[in-house]
Amino acid sequence: MALWLLGDSEAVRKCLQCSELDFQDYVAGRKEPSCIEFDRLVALIVREQGILLANQREGLRQRRERRKIRKAKITRSMND
Greatest CA separation found in the chain? Predict the structure, then answer.
């Protein structure tokens, strides 16, 4: 999931602060990350999902605002 969120395996590896070999083993499922690395991974996922949610909320807010403006224009034109 972290790879999907960031789109860059090197960025994920750097966030985990692990070696390239360890990271390759994690991705391949040959080895589990340490508790500290797992905590970093979870924090990364939570942070990135928070950014996605904030962007989605902003997009919804903008759409609602545009819809509100369009409704107001339609209502005004119907009253004229």
Answer: 71
